[in-house]
Design brief:
This protein has two domains: about 230 residues, Response regulator (Rossmann fold, 3-Layer(aba) Sandwich), CATH 3.40.50; about 130 residues, Response regulator (Rossmann fold, 3-Layer(aba) Sandwich), CATH 3.40.50.2300. Helix content is about 40%, strand content about 10%. The chain is built from 16 helices and 13 strands. It has a seven-stranded mixed β-sheet with strand order 6-5-7-8-9-12-13, sandwiched between helices. The protein has a two-stranded parallel sheet with strand order 1-2. Strand 12 and strand 13 form a beta hairpin. The N terminus is likely disordered.
């Protein structure tokens, strides 16, 4: 089949690479969170990530003849536990996947010493886009500043923002504060008032004070940078206070099906920007159902498999697998190391044709990376809750990276200065 790499192809690649009959496994640990206050959103993502790697192991014998060890180290989304997991797993790892902006910020300087790539798809520190400064960090296919820019673009498409008021409901956590530089820039340039409204970790399920403020301020739009129980709490409060759901837009982590199913039809019109989409008709979904789920090798269920977050987990692992394949082919070995994987992640080229070959049509926009561009800036779709599921409510939106390229570079340079001495990749210069 055109869509899939068969076992024979994998074996042939192994021959070309000159690998042994049984290659050593590739250790790609995931700092997962299946427990704690964010477990409801973490579980489908972790299941999607794990199931894609299981598919490759079962169908293709791994990648290039090398099996993937996708061991999880449970963090509960705790920054302290995340750092412990990093230290525990870094010995033979070719990548680390921190799974929290807080953990990413703590691990970021360590990987520059340990020389292990961070892969943080769609999260983490936005200036990581600058591959010259952050040579070991990747947040492809899109970063938080991309997401903030696309949301403002979408709102402008509904009419001028001049004189409008935009409430920014966000988790009081490094993750929630990430988009502020771009949102503040747009507020100054486009003439709207930005009203930050933080939600503490202990307030996620009881946001009465925040929504009382929203009722009093009467913003034209609410933009939500939420995660876990915060999203369900906010969506429930929005319905309760009769905020117009069509004017309520979340980041991609605030577009979880289960949160909207709590309110059903009453949530109709709520939107979330997203760089992934759960195309249930995509060939990869059938393959995973047959080879992984029906074979009893998955922790997911049929309802979860149909959701946005499970499909996003599949895309995340596909990006990692693509980086591994690139490195294997370039360096002529199946048993790549962390340095070689860095090269592989810097040379991602997910064209429409390649996405189709992976059986993922419509599940992720095309994007490419380079030594200077570690984010890819893929763009995304505005998804809308139709009362029962998320559907695409826009054509592909592309971030206007030129508008904040200087911000990326200045923030990256400031980070390097604050953490001097800081090793850089002097061969790279551009971030987009």
């Amino acid at each position: 089949m055109k869509h899939f790499t068969k076992l024979a192809t994998a074996a042939a690649l192994g021959t070309v690479l000159g690998t042994a009959a049984i290659a050593q496994e590739l250790y790609t640990p995931n700092l997962a969170y299946r427990t704690g206050p964010f477990a409801a959103t973490g579980i489908p993502l972790m299941n999607g990530q794990a199931d894609y790697m299981t598919l490759l192991n079962e169908r293709d014998g791994g990648i290039g003849g090398a099996k993937i060890n996708f061991e999880e180290c449970e963090t509960g989304y705790s920054t302290e536990k995340g750092v412990e997991c990093y230290e525990k797993t870094k010995g033979t790892a070719i990548v680390t996947q921190p799974w929290s902006t807080g953990i990413t910020l703590q691990v970021l300087p360590k990987t520059n010493v340990d020389e292990i790539p961070i892969l943080a798809p769609g999260y983490g520190f936005s200036p990581m886009a600058d591959g010259k400064v952050f040579q070991w960090a990747f947040n492809m296919p899109a970063g938080y500043w991309d997401g903030a820019d696309m949301i403002i673009q979408y709102l402008e498409g509904q009419g001028s923002l001049d004189g409008k008021k935009v409430a920014f409901l966000h988790l009081d956590h490094p993750f929630g504060k990430e988009p502020l530089p771009v949102l503040e820039m747009h507020a100054a340039n486009k003439g709207f008032e930005l009203l930050p409204i933080p939600v503490g970790l202990k307030e996620m399920q009881n946001q009465s004070a925040q929504w009382l403020q929203i009722r009093r301020e009467r913003p034209d739009y609410v933009v939500m940078w939420g995660w876990g129980a915060m999203n369900a709490g906010a969506i429930t409060e929005a319905v309760k206070t009769k905020f117009p759901m069509e004017n309520f837009i979340g980041v991609w982590w605030a577009g979880h099906d289960a949160d909207l199913k709590l309110v059903g039809e009453e949530g109709k019109g709520y939107k979330s920007i997203s760089w992934s989409f759960p195309n249930l008709d995509a060939p990869v979904m059938k393959e995973i159902k047959e080879r992984v789920i029906d074979a009893g090798l998955s922790q997911t269920n049929e309802e979860e498999m149909q959701g946005v977050f499970y499909g996003r987990g599949l895309v995340m692992s596909a990006i990692l697998a693509e980086g591994i394949k690139n490195a294997q082919e370039n360096f002529g070995t199946a048993e790549i190391d962390a340095t070689q994987l860095r090269w592989g992640l810097e040379n991602i080229n997910l064209t429409e044709e390649r996405i189709a070959e992976l059986g993922m049509e419509g599940m992720v926009p095309p994007f490419s990376t380079s030594c200077g561009n570690h984010t890819g800036h893929s763009g995304g779709w505005m998804l809308e809750w139709d009362g029962a599921k998320f559907v695409k409510a826009s054509d592909l939106l592309k971030p206007n990276v030129d508008g904040y390229a200087d911000l990326i570079q200045s923030s990256a340079a400031e980070y390097a200065t604050s953490n001097a001495p800081w090793a850089m990749n002097e061969e790279c210069s551009a971030t987009n």
